[in-house]
Design brief:
Length: 625
Amino acid sequence: MSAVAAAAPPLGFRSDTTAGTWLSRLTHTTEVLSGIVLAVDVVVVFLSVVFRYFLHDPVDWAEEIARALMIVLVFFGAATVLARSQHVGVDIFRDKLPASWQPAMVQVGHWIIAGVSASLCLSSVLLLVDTWEQTTSIGLPQWLYVFPVVFGSAFMTLFGIANACNGPRRLVVNTLVGCAIVAVLVFGWNRVMPDHAIPHGLLLGVAFVGGLVLGVPIGFVLAFSALLYFLSDPTLPMLVYSQQVMAGADHFVLLAIPFFVLAGLLMEANGMSSRLIELLLRIFGRVRGGLGIISITATAFFSGVSGSKLADIAAVGGIVMPAVRRTKQDPNEAAGLLACTAVMAETIPPCINMIIMGFVANISIAGLFMAGLVPAAVLALSLAVIAVIVGKKINPDDAFEKRTPLLPLIGGALVAFIMVGMIGKGVTSGVATSTEVSAFAVVYALLVGGAAFRELTLRSVSRLFVKSASMAGSILFIVAAASSVSFALTIEQIPQMVSSTMIAFANDYGSIMFLLLSVGIMIIFGAVLEGAPALIIFGPLLTPIAQQLGIHPLHFGTVMVIAMGLGLFAPPIGLGLFATCAITGTTVKDVTRPMMKYLAVLLVTLIVLVLVPSFSLWLPNRLGL
């Protein structure tokens, strides 16, 4: 996932025009509001935990308020990311087509985004009218949940249109007219020739593939696919579209995602990250392959805090890569290993993708967290063996421009270790949910980390809240949009068709072959769909089949997440690898060759993990999860 720089100007707006100035102000206001909402949500969840577990006086309304605030966070955050044109998409298919086509394809993509946003806004207004007098289970008005969707989608519409109108006037007009003609022809045909209408499911599939080819951001590809399905089926009220999108974001457990991302960013900003990595360099620097071991260890450690793989790579790479260059090591080798450590760390709690997998597939998130630890250790050991074999010794003194005194260094690392221990104990003990633990992690990183290192300022903290809110909006909008696609697929009985086909395959070839096929699917679609959407789509489809075949859901969920990560960071199209290269200042073509040995080890180890379920199930069984 791409992080949003709060100070960067909106990419699609011209600041020298009145409209551009107003849109820039609206973007900034929306960002600030998103950051404030995230801060309030942290306070609400943290205080609810304090009242429940320490004062024994539960606050009944806290979860409802937290969920309502999260909907604001999702749709306002998604709007700010759209304003800065930083939603994640797949450009590789479009880039393979003739260069003369690409400007028009980009422009069509902008119109699709604007059309989806406007349709979501209209649908949410209809939903608001329909639910105006309804209340929630504790008596809160239902419009409390719908209004954020209305305003967030309205902002997305404004930003989408602004981005679409920013191109050459002739191209803008021609593509708009072309899109309108195609829409009229398709829906006109379906209305005039109902007996020969284009099937709803076919429209959904064409929209999905077409959106990917055009390079439309993944979240809007999913929303566009579902939108065409809803528009083509007159039996579906349009308000159901926004209802399904909103339902995808309205889950308390998903709050753990922005909270853990924020905790990781705070940890990096207050110096906990740099102190830990410097201490590791002092310890392992003179060992053969020491820099590789440090990358593996540091990524594993930070994965236990931030939950976001790209946040981990940014934290580790920002400190390790300068040391690599100062000690005259190969930066391409280091970048390739760093990308592979992100795959290794996919199942270390509190990984965001484990939370998503548990949520969409109805698997215990605490169980998944524990199931992922031993496989992650096996993957880390495999990478470490290769790193030692191919690595060299370095002089740690050459790795730093300025050395930190040892005592403060150990103290800083200890503060970070306590934070990780607190998260692990909270998740495994069952004292609190992953969302509640993540709120505690934020407060700890903010108060304890800030007091210990004194490197945080009010301005830097506010920027981190804004950045986290935008990152969360980008991630969770994909989850929300996928909910509408899941609804459409259920109507089309796609899950039943996939289930019957996969069960027949398993009956012919066995459950192990089913597992290996599922792993292959996740590797391919993890690369194509930017990771998390592959889990969102295939997790709920394949998990029930695995359970029917006697495969433990914790084992299945663990290997699926690892396979998804392998696809996400594998060349030639893994978006995670492109992000890693951008962070480390390398290029994919230079990194691919030295990276292949690490990828091969990961793939072989993954197959071993598939064949030996006890790696995943030993710890959950010991803990009774």
